[in-house]
Design a protein that fits this description.
Surface antigen (D15); 473 residues; 20 strands; 22% helix; membrane; Bac_surfAg_D15; alpha+beta; two-stranded antiparallel ribbon; Porin; globular
Amino acid sequence: MKKYIKCFTVLIIVVLLNLIFMGGAYGTEAEAESKSDVKVVKDKSFFGEMVNKVKGYYTIDEETEEKHVPFVYYVNEAGLMVGDFYYNTDLFDNQTKLISASMYSPTKETFTSFTNVKDYPLSDKCSLGGDLKIIKYNEIKNSALGNDSSDEEIPESTLDVIDSFKDLSPTSQQRVEDALIATLDDSDDIDPKESLETDKEEKVYSSLLNEAQTNGDKMDGYQLYHGWNNSITIDLTYKINETNDIVTAYTYEELESQVTDYKSDTISLAWENEEIDRKNNPRQGHKLITKVEKSLDWLGHDSENSWDYTKYTLDARKYLPVFEESTLAFRFRTQSTTGEEVKDQERTFLNMLSGDSNPEVTTYAPFFDMSLLGDLNTMKGYNYYRFYDNNSVLYQTELRFPLDNILPRLQGNIFAEAGRVSSDFDQELFTEDMHYSGGFGVRYFFNQDVVVRTDVGFSDEGTKMRMNIGQTF
């Protein structure tokens, strides 16, 4: 109950502060009226003044180039969040577009900030853009590698024992590991009592053996991470002609957690062919993206992060007009990651506790940059980072329809998704063992350049709420 009282109090404070400072921070009421097509009715009472200010605050004119919009939203991983959405479609007075959204959860102390800049003109054919992501998270589920990983949480007692194992010296770790493997394999080659040299080693060995015998079937589940996930991308777009672009980008991403730290930096090259009738709300046409992404050793390299991988992406989208003003959108995407294998120490050890005769787990890249399903744009009925492996396939369908009778520039959406990940790139990847997600959502078009959306996704693992900028695809 205390956390809900705290959250409600914060919401009231945010609303009151926004109302008090709206005139200074976001423009006067007169300015709001001049930029709005909706007439604000004057009321001299205190309540009436508040209502008028709220109307002016949230009234959006399609011609408005700059706007702040406070909001409240619910996210499964963070609970109730308060935030601010800001856009400017003529930054620097040269048609550069800036979109930013920041959210904070007073109950989970989670913070997220997303900023996108695009179309900064360098020449008639070249433009610059970028993205900045800052996330402080408390309950991100890091699943095991593979399409069949469990949605159960790894017991906390297991993770505590693993932490005790990590506190041992490397030579002690090796003795404990050898003794444990011999015991689990029923081997007579090694007598655990003879190979272990200290009381601490024997204690850790006994604890690990107990976890393997009682919770061995739960080792392929997820761990709850808490920490920071930050990334920055700088991209350069060269316009070949009206329908074809070449996009090159540099990305640095890091994830810090209580379990381990990941970091990587990559450079990518993409060819984009786009023939659509409307930029952010196409009714007909297609878009095709081919992309190659290569890891670097500039900023994302240290003793714990030495990556050498290449990721290939093929992304095809088709838009068909249906009914009077609706659109049927289709998407097919496949990704493949290859490179130098890196041993995942944590998952290898968990596999060993499960009794796997071949416990070693290797990956080519940090899990967040592998072929991934489960984010703001894919498999929205599942957790973030739910499925990842060397290869993936994704099928998406959306029916987009106007809701102008409810609110001008509001759009409804019904979607269905199917996808899977695999260690092998073969025919079965595209046809077998699919995971499915579906749901509905709404999009609001502040203008032709700025779209925000919210989706509710369903799957066999639950219901998720997602919010993002722009269409899904």
